[in-house]
Write a structure and sequence with these properties.
Length: 473
């Protein structure tokens, strides 16, 4: 005779343990359906949201921001061993018999109250230098793309941990119940080279509840897969289906008390609301012609960096917490003079327009804008240094990022590198320090924003990091 289900459950050790104490699943479900996500606040926030402009591949700081005119006399000569020291090289140049110094081929000029050096390749960025804080002393241990990008985005070189945007969503929740707290936009650069892969785990939630993962918008078709109802399915029929699925999931949640079931319920509800909110978001019919002109000729091309910058501003207006823009094509191991010019042509005007647009609309004060890559490029040439051409290898010992808004001190330059732009000379800023500072501006103490997983408390900054107070307004 088969015993009743209730009896089996009563003697099932796992069910007993899950059912003991507070009904965590029900509590999680109530919190998720309220939409407040039990947001944390450790310090007074200066920013409500982040727009992260990520230049995937490693832009050359030497050719964009870190002006080293003294390298002209070293051009073509061997990089002194005393400069390199014991720093390891990638497998792409470790076997080179010669490491000839390659001075930048581009002109520089100073801009903004801090006298920041900006390359001729970025004239629009130079025009907003007074709003930017340049950090020349960022450094990382990673020297290859995937570990370096993973470290920047998750705080660890090995995959599996939550991304920055997921931590932000986890800590602060969402300001808009009809859009995800974390949105990802990807554009392909103009440089003619194979694109390094961008894995979805870079905007994943890791071991955090899955509703904190980033939602990647597509540039063609539905912005989000299955956003539109299939032919023959009316909105009313879809609502009925969701109500039935919600009832079944709640029944299962009451049995198992699994918080991930609550997450599934809230994701279905978010998908329903997005069927209305996303088409409204993506429609730019109401934007002034002057706005499109400001963002540049590609602003009407879906999936371009310009269009994504405009979309980022629209997402910021609607309270999305973390907006990540990836722009591919910055891995200039060869053809750097031509390819870098193309890449800068993609991003220069739109990024500057985004800063101006946010400021004009009163959003820059509480929006933290970040421009960064996973590392910089080497002072020496990869391969043969030719009269009109060369490349640069990966370089993590020093590279440049800029920040704007969100309580960051504008018109400033922080940190410095040696005369060869090979090592940090003053005020080093590690990737963990940068992330700790960004979290601080969002009102989150990086040492307290933790999640216990497999018996250990994890955080974005691992066991490192300090807030760089010198760049705060």
């Amino acid at each position: 005779m088969t015993p009743p289900l209730s009896h089996v459950q009563s003697v099932n050790r796992r069910h007993f343990l899950l059912g003991g104490g507070l009904n965590l699943g029900a509590m999680a479900l109530a919190s998720l359906l309220r939409g407040d996500e039990s947001a944390l606040s450790h310090v007074a926030p200066q920013a409500k949201r982040v727009i992260y402009l990520f230049m995937h591949g490693g832009p050359s700081q030497l050719d964009l921001f870190d002006h080293k005119p003294g390298l002209a006399k070293w051009h073509g000569k061997e990089l002194p061993p005393s400069v390199r020291g014991t720093q390891r090289l990638t497998g792409m140049t470790s076997g080179q018999k010669s490491l000839p110094v390659a001075a930048s081929r581009f002109r520089f000029a100073r801009h903004g109250p801090g006298g920041a050096w900006v390359s001729e390749l970025l004239p629009h960025t130079a025009g907003v230098a007074g709003e930017l804080c340049f950090i020349h002393s960022l450094h990382t241990e990673a020297i290859n793309h995937d570990p370096a990008v993973t470290l920047m985005q998750t705080g660890h070189q090995q995959p599996g941990r939550p991304s920055f945007g997921a931590w932000t969503s986890y800590g602060l929740g969402s300001e808009n119940r009809s859009l995800p707290a974390f949105v990802v936009l990807i554009s392909r650069g103009s440089a003619a080279r194979p694109a390094d892969p961008l894995y979805a785990r870079l905007w994943g939630s890791g071991f955090l509840p899955s509703n904190h993962q980033g939602v990647s918008f597509r540039s063609s078709g539905d912005p989000v897969l299955y956003l539109s109802n299939p032919p023959g399915v009316s909105p009313e029929a879809r609502r009925t289906q969701l109500d039935a699925a919600r009832a079944l999931n709640r029944f299962q949640s009451d049995l198992q008390h699994d918080p991930e079931i609550a997450t599934r319920i809230t994701q279905y509800e978010m998908a329903w609301r997005m069927q209305t909110s996303v088409p409204d978001l993506m429609s730019t019919r109401g934007e002034a012609e002057s706005t499109f002109d400001a963002y540049g000729p590609q602003a009407r091309v879906p999936g371009s960096f310009a269009a994504n910058c405009l979309l980022a501003r629209r997402l910021a207006e609607r309270g999305v917490r973390f907006i990540q823009l990836y722009h591919r094509g910055w891995d200039q191991h060869y053809n750097l003079p031509s390819d870098l010019r193309l890449q800068c042509g993609d991003i220069d005007q739109p990024a500057a327009a985004l800063i101006r647009d946010l400021k004009q609309r009163g959003l820059l004060d509480d929006t933290l804008v970040v421009w960064a890559g996973e590392f910089g490029r080497t002072t020496y040439s990869q391969g043969k240094l030719e009269p009109a051409n060369h490349g640069r290898d990966h370089h993590g010992a020093c590279f440049t990022v800029w920040l704007a808004g969100g309580g960051i001190r504008p018109g400033t330059v922080f940190g410095g590198t040696d005369d060869f732009c090979y090592q940090v000379a003053r005020d080093p800023v590690h990737v963990h320090d940068l992330n700790a500072t960004l979290l601080h501006q969002l009102g989150l103490n990086h040492e307290r924003l933790t999640h216990r997983f497999q018996g250990r408390d994890y955080r974005l900054t691992d066991v490192h990091g300090r807030v760089v107070t010198q760049i705060l307004g």
